Each structure stands twice: as structure tokens, then as C-alpha cells.
């Protein structure tokens, strides 16, 4: 059985892929790892799932907010 944290990461990656369709998957993972670990002050090998999940949640929230702002701007023009 996959742990709940990993299940959530995998599910949210699908959502992120929809929010950022122009971003290659490798770019998405690299950006998330950078957000979680900082400027490579630790290796990706040591990155904990909960750190990655926090980054996934943050990126999803940021992209969702931007999409909402873009939709609002489009409706008002």
C-alpha cells in the first residue's frame, strides 16, 4: 500500500500538470524539489515526502490563484 502522503503527492501532480500544461514533467519535478530543498543545500536524495508535498501544495495554490486572476482579467476586458 502506498502511504497517504505519497498518494496525495501523486494525485496533486496530476492537478499541477493540468495547471501548467506547458511545463515539462522534469521541469515540474525540478521546480518542486528546488522549492522544497532550497538552492540545493541538501541533496534530492534526502528530500522527505512531506517537504515535497508542502511544495506541491504551494505550487498548486500559486498556479490556481494565477489561473483565477487571469480568468478574471479576461472577463473584465
Descriptive overview:
The chain is mainly alpha-helical. The protein has helices spanning 4-19, 25-37, 49-76. Helix 1 (4-19) packs parallel to helix 3 (49-76) and helix 2 crosses helix 3. The protein is elongated, with a radius of gyration of 14 Å. The termini are far apart.
Radius of gyration: 14 Å
Task: Please provide the ordered H/E string of secondary-structure elements.
Answer: HHH
**How does the overall form come out from the CA principal axes?**
elongated
Largest sheet: none
How many helices? The count is 3
Uncertain stretches of 5 or more adjacent residues:
none
Which range best describes the helical content: under 10%, 10-25%, 25-40%, 40-55%, 55-70% or over 70%?
Answer: over 70%
Strand content: under 5%
Mean pLDDT across all residues, rounded?
87
Q: Could you say which structural class the secondary elements and strand pairing correspond to?
A: mainly alpha
Calculate the terminal CA-CA distance, rounded to whole Å: 49 Å
Question: How many beta-strand segments?
Answer: 0
Helices and strands in order, then pairings?
Blueprint: H1 4-19, H2 25-37, H3 49-76
List keywords for this structure.
77 residues, mainly alpha, 74% helix, 0% strand
Short description:
The protein is mostly helical and 77 residues long.
Amino acid at each position: 500500500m502506498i502511504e497517504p502522503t505519497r498518494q496525495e503527492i501523486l494525485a496533486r501532480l496530476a492537478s499541477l500538470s493540468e495547471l501548467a500544461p506547458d511545463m515539462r514533467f522534469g521541469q515540474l519535478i525540478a521546480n518542486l524539489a528546488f522549492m522544497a530543498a532550497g538552492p540545493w543545500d541538501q541533496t534530492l536524495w534526502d528530500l522527505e515526502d512531506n517537504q515535497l508535498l508542502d511544495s506541491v501544495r504551494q505550487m498548486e495554490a500559486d498556479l490556481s490563484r494565477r489561473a483565477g486572476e487571469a480568468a478574471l482579467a479576461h472577463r473584465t476586458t
